[in-house]
Structure formats: C-alpha cells, structure tokens
Design brief:
transmembrane, 5 helices, alpha+beta, Immunoglobulin-like, single chain, disulfide bond, 6-stranded mixed β-sheet, Ig-like domain-containing protein, 4-stranded antiparallel β-sheet
C-alpha cells in the first residue's frame, strides 16, 4: 500500500509540474548595471505568465557580496515597485549610495515555495575615473627578485583587464581582487602581481602597467628604474645606517668601559705595591733599632758600667 501511495504522489507531482513549471520561471533584467552615486536604476522581474499586482507578486532581497548578508528591500515604504507591463514588475532605486551596491534578487512565493530570479548586480561608484598605482617590494631580504603590484581602484574586477608591458613584451602575471575596507560601502579593487628577477631587471629601464575598462578606455602607469629607488630600498638604506650608528655607539661605550676598568686595575696595583714597600720599610727600621740597642749595651759592658 505504501508503494502505491508513493507512486501516486510522484505521478501527481509530475502532472502538476507539467502544467505549472512555466509559471515558476523568473528572469531579471539587466544582469549587470553600473551607476554613479546619486543616480537611479530600474530593476525588472519578468514572469512567464501575466501578473495582476506587483506588490504581492514579487519581493526583493539584496545580497551584500562582501559580508554575505541578505536584507529585504522595503518596496511598500518607498512605493518604488510598479507594474512595467503584463508580465513584468519593476523596482526603481533612487539616490543611490555606495551602500546600495550588491546583488538584487526578485523572489516570488507560491504556497510554501520561493522562486528566485537570476539576480541583478548593481555597482555604485563615485564620479571619479579609475585610478592606478604601482608598488614594488623585495620578496625576501636576500632575494634577487622583486615583486611589483599594480593596483586599480574605481572599477570592479569583472570590468577591468590588467596587463604589464616590459620593453616590447606583454605579460599578464596573476591578478586578485579584494575589498577596500570592512564597511557596507566597501568596493572591490583589482591587484595584479608580477615578479622579475635580476637578469630581467638589468635589461629594462621602464615597467608599465595598463588597465583597460569599458571595452576601449585604458589607463597606464610607468615605473622608471633609473629614477628614485623603490621605497623598500630607502627603508633598507635607512635601516643599514641606523644599524651602523648603533654599532659605532656600542663600540665607543665598550671602549670607554674597558679603559676605565684598565685604569682602576693599574691604580689598585700601585696601591698594593706601596703597602708592600711600607711593610718592608717598617721591618728594616725595627732591625736597625735592635742592632743599635745591642751595640750600646755592649759598649756599656766594656766600660764597666754594667755588671756581668
């Protein structure tokens, strides 16, 4: 009996799905939109069948791509959800800030099921152009290789292509992305890495980094090796000078201490010798005195002044 029951439930589910699956497909448009701070954007949720009211047909959730936090978009309070056409509900976001960046999902509820759209990526940036900078650092204190980093801000990694130009050679290196900070308004940046060894560095005078965005636009930065040394070398020179000064200072202090110890040792030896000389002198004086007394006694005996 149990087997027949499960078969009937499976058959019923298949028949139900064959008649209703087309109504559970949600599409969103656009897939990606890049807007400036203070502007507006319209997100569309497209159903397979006609919808009567958008306020109960779809809800919207925003996913923070950095923290993974999912929050609801209050469409009732803002009155920014409307019916675009018979099958489309539109959500308009006004006066955007960087905190409004994220992935927006259209969600429709049917009984106890939730149907989720494919999502719309919203990127909110300020009006400034993307910026690019080059940094360099030694990988290890005794290493002959130098690592260069090309940092691109103001554009998300999916919109930027970063590459290096060393002489006439185009190098890609490896690229990573991260967030500017830990706040809700954090934005992504792109960082490209390139490692060059001594034999390569000796053959080039300039290292260029290029960042292409929006298909045709590009910015670049050039690092001239014949110019000022990278910051890491300045720090190494500074550290070397400090170490040399400390070594000289310690050497001078140790020399002074040793010299004072030597003077104290000599002084102690002199005092010891004087004491010994004084003891010897006292011994000689006593002997002389004893001898003088003996002579005087002998003379008195000879003169008859003293009885034998």
């Amino acid at each position: 009996m149990g087997t027949w029951t499960h078969l009937w439930m499976l058959l019923s589910s298949c028949l139900f799905a064959s008649h209703t699956t087309h109504s559970f497909v949600l599409k969103q448009s656009p897939g990606l939109t890049h807007v400036s701070v203070g502007s507006s954007v319209e997100l569309r949720c497209i159903f397979e069948q006609n919808v009567q009211y958008c306020f109960n047909a779809a809800t919207w959730e925003k996913l923070n791509l950095r923290t993974g936090e999912l929050t609801s978009v209050n469409t009732i309070r803002e009155s920014n959800a409307r019916k675009y056409d018979e099958k489309t509900c539109a959500l308009t976001l006004n006066n955007l800030t960087k905190k409004d960046s994220g992935m927006y999902y259209c969600i429709s509820h049917y009984n106890q099921m939730a149907i989720i759209g494919n999502g719309t990526r919203v990127i909110v940036t300020d009006h400034s152009e993307p910026k690019l900078s080059i940094m360099s650092s030694l990988q290890e204190p005794d290493s002959s290789s130098v690592e260069y980093q090309c940092l691109v801000t103001g554009r998300v990694p999916s919109q930027v292509r970063v590459y290096w130009m060393i002489g006439e050679n185009v190098l890609s290196g490896w690229t990573e992305s991260a967030w500017t900070d830990n706040t809700d308004s954090a934005t992504e940046f792109t960082r490209a890495h390139l490692t060059l060894y001594a034999e390569q560095l000796n053959e080039v005078d300039e290292i260029q980094c290029f960042a292409e965005y929006d298909g045709t636009n590009a910015i670049s930065k050039t690092l001239t090796r014949s110019g000022p040394e990278p910051e890491i070398y300045s720090w190494l020179v500074y550290a070397g000078c400090v170490a040399a000064l400390l070594t000289i200072l310690i050497t001078v202090i140790m020399s002074v201490v040793l010299y004072q110890d030597m003077l104290m040792t000599k002084k102690s030896k002199r005092l010891t010798r004087k004491d010994a000389h004084r003891k010897i002198s006292y011994g000689k004086q006593n002997t002389i005195r004893e001898d003088s007394s003996s002579v005087m006694l002998r003379d008195r005996i000879e003169d008859g002044e003293v009885d034998h």
